[in-house]
Amino acid sequence: MGSPQTDRQALEKLWRTRLDEAKLRVELARNFLREIHEDTKNGTLPRPDGEFAYRRAVRAENLALAEYTRILRIFHNLTVNGKVPDGTDWPRPRTAATNGANSANGANGEDH
């Protein structure tokens, strides 16, 4: 293995990448929510479908934001406090649903 400094730099780079990806998912979810809101408002989406799509888009945004916040906390603890993430901090396993329709609107496939 490399030196502790090299290992830490690699770990910081890894978590920076994860943070950037999570931020992108938040931005995508927010843009999707804005689109659904506009489509519902201007009547492009009929009312029942539009309301359902809007609720799903809000949920997707909330999930993306929660994951971004989780990763930001880990990255902060690593870079500022020197706390190396343990096994519970690593990314959650992806499910088949993650790669389906939910990923298009920023959801991470988890149902809470």
Sheet with the most strands, sense and barrel status: none
Percent in helix: 55-70%
- Average of per-residue pLDDT values: 83
Beta percentage is: under 5%
Oligomer: single chain
- The general outline is rod-shaped
- Rg from alpha-carbon coordinates: 17 Å
In whole angstroms, how far apart are the ends? Answer: 39 Å
Number of strands: 0
Backbone structural class = mainly alpha
Output the helix-strand order: HHH
pLDDT < 50 stretches: 95-112
Total helices: the number is 3
Instruction: Give the count of structural domains.
Output: 1
Characterize the structure shown.
- By secondary structure, the chain is mostly helical.
- The protein has one domain (12-104).
- Helices cover 67% and strands 0% of the residues.
- The chain is built from 3 helices and no strands.
- Helix 1 runs antiparallel to helix 2.
Q: Descriptors for this entry?
A:
single chain; 112 residues; mainly alpha; 3 helices; 0% strand; disordered C terminus
Write the layout of secondary structure elements.
Layout: H1 4-41, H2 47-79, H3 101-104
Helix pairs in contact: 1-2
Q: What would a concise description of this structure say?
A:
The protein is 67% helix and 0% strand. It has 112 residues and is an all-alpha fold.
